[in-house]
Amino acid sequence: MSRTARVSSIKEALLLPTIAVPVVVGEGGATLDEAIANSGIAIPSSLSSEWCRQQGLKRDVGSTVVLRSVTGPTIALISLGDDDQSTTNYRLVGASAVRAAGENSLAVLLPTEVMKDPAGVSQAIVEGALLASYNFKNHDTLSSVDVVPVGAPLPTVSVHDDVTRGVERGALVAEAVNWAKFLIDSPAGDMTPRNLASEIEERLGVDAHIEMEVWTESKIREERLGGLLGVGQGSAQPTRLVYATYDPEPGVSLPHVALVGKGVTFDSGGLSMKSPEGMMAMKTDMSGAAIVMAATSLASRLGLRVRISAIAPLTENTVGDKATKPGDVLTIRNGMTIEVLNTDAEGRLILADGLSLAAETSADAIIDVATLTGAQNVSLGDEVGALFASCDDLADQLLDASSRSGEALWRMPLVDGYESHFESDIADMKNMGKPPRAGSIIGALILRRFTAGKPWAHLDIAGPSRADGARGYTTKGATAFSVRTLVEYLSALAS
Ligand code: BES
Ligand code: MN
Ligand code: ZN
Asked: In terms of Cα–Cα distance, which of 294, 289, 287 is closest to 311?
């Protein structure tokens, strides 16, 4: 199935006030004007809010009334709530439109004449529609988008260009997020460290502006990544590290960001084993790796003028004869030692190495993304990610980006006093504090030790990395939460 989204200027006659946008759902082929004229549904020449309400349309953003005819296309009225300029609302409208369309093709009528930001709105609709149409089982049938200007002559060519640009951008963004969701939703038995590295290489390795290295175990040992090796040594699946560099204009000095993603392809907890219940969704524990690689790939496809060093340590955390035991001490890339008192606190061990590598680059800022702590889920739930940052500038830039992407972040404190919670008698630090106290803060404080004092931010997305049901444009299962925020942040840096 391919789905065609037609974004067009809307005729004055169909102009809605602020509460709804009309969406035509049909078999495709006919233009929207013909579609509406031939729909066999009595539509007044002007769709007032009152008429929409009479049809049963609610104010809640995305609520939908479907008007069906026997012969013609279906018309779906979709509410924009009170704000017809909010991109978040348009993302929700896109999601509702796609759900109303089901298996049919979809055309969206856009009131471009009254829109302040036609590019942003078009992007949001397409983004919402394609994100909502992600389906792991039918991945091959992912929707495609075509922009076909139809209806009344467009008011100005520039508006139409804006719409085309927005649609293209929305499609690129959603495709990258859906790629990451696919990697994350894949069973851990399939998406082993080796296979995940191959999937990433298949996408990023062929990009003209990206250089990719996949480190095998011998290289990882040579490079002294003791945290990553320590976590991986219990598993029969070999450990990998993906190092991707995006540099669109070599020789030119561009803003440079290092991205580090946690890539635990399955987290059993190791010898400090999780419960069966606690393990069920642990194929999700490589979200950070998929997210930073998707963001890097997307930055390149959007042609953003930034440099990115993207680092993803990939490993399983399982048990075996050689597994790291509670009480063992690991030596990280930067020379610091960590006493592993709980093998289930493995994310910080592999990120310690990843962050050490990032700190060796010339990056102006380092950002890591990780499903790091259950405590994050306890404190903020599954709709808000935790943001930790060593400096206010970086925090504010990420919060701005998050308000544009609609992926909510809440800044958490790096409480210096809690450093004492993970002092060790035999090493530079322990890998845990005093549970159940401030678990996500302890995790962040441990990571900070490996950032060499550079501007650094940490996104703990344990909660929002999965959705237990579809809501809005979020589908059930993997969310790849923060790809869009990272790319918003990078776009702002680039301009
Ligand atoms: N991957 C988990 C964190 C997690 C939990 C993510 C639930 C998503 C949902 C992480 O490796 C972990 O197990 N953390 C421990 C740390 C503790 C042992 C200090 C935790 O949060 O319980
Ligand atoms: Mn764990
Ligand atoms: Zn984990």
From this structure: 289
Pick the atom of ligand 1 nearest to 373's CA.
Answer: 21
Which helix (DSSP H) or strand (DSSP E) does residue 108 occupy?
A: strand 105-110
Task: Tell if the pTM clears 0.90, that is, is over it.
Answer: yes
User: Which atom of ligand 1 lies closest to the CA of 442?
Assistant: 19
CB of 462 closer than 8 Å to CB of 381: no
The region that residue 337 occupies, defined by phi over 0 for left and psi between -120 and 50 for alpha, beta otherwise, is beta
Element (H, E) at 395: helix 392-405
Measured in angstroms, how far is the CA atom of residue 284 from the centroid of ligand 3?
9
- In whole angstroms, give the CA distance from residue 434 to residue 442: 9
Residue 295 to residue 298: CA distance in whole angstroms:
5
The amino acid occupying position 84 is D
10-40 residue pLDDT tens: 332 232 222 224 443 433 334 455 556 666 6
Give the Cβ contact number of residue 256 at 10 Å.
18
Phi-psi region of 251 (alpha: psi -120 to 50; beta: other; left: phi over 0): left
- 371 Cβ neighbours under 8 A, 6+ residues apart: 262, 264, 284, 285, 287, 288, 347, 460, 461, 462, 465
Give 342's Cβ-side CA count (13 Å radius).
17
Q: Is the CB of 461 under 6 A from ligand 1?
A: no
What are the phi and psi torsion angles at 28 (to 5°)? Answer: 85, 175
Please provide the CATH number assigned to the domain covering 180-494. Answer: 3.40.630.10
84 lines ligand 1 (CB under 6 A): no
DSSP character string of 210-239: EEEEEE-HHHHHHTT-HHHHHHHTT-SSPP
For the chain, domain boundaries: 4-149, 180-494
pLDDT-derived band of residue 473, with 50, 70 and 90 as boundaries?
very high
Selected catalytic residue, list 91, 262, 333, 348? 348
Cβ count within 10 A of residue 180: 27
Q: What is the largest CA-CA distance in the chain?
A: 79
**Class of the CATH domain delimited by 4-149:** alpha beta
Average pLDDT over every residue of 190-202: 98
Burial class (CB in 10 A: 0-12, 13-18, 19+), 60: exposed
Peptide bond into 187 cis (omega under 30): no
Q: List C-alpha distances in Å: 306 to 291, 424, 487.
A: 17, 40, 11
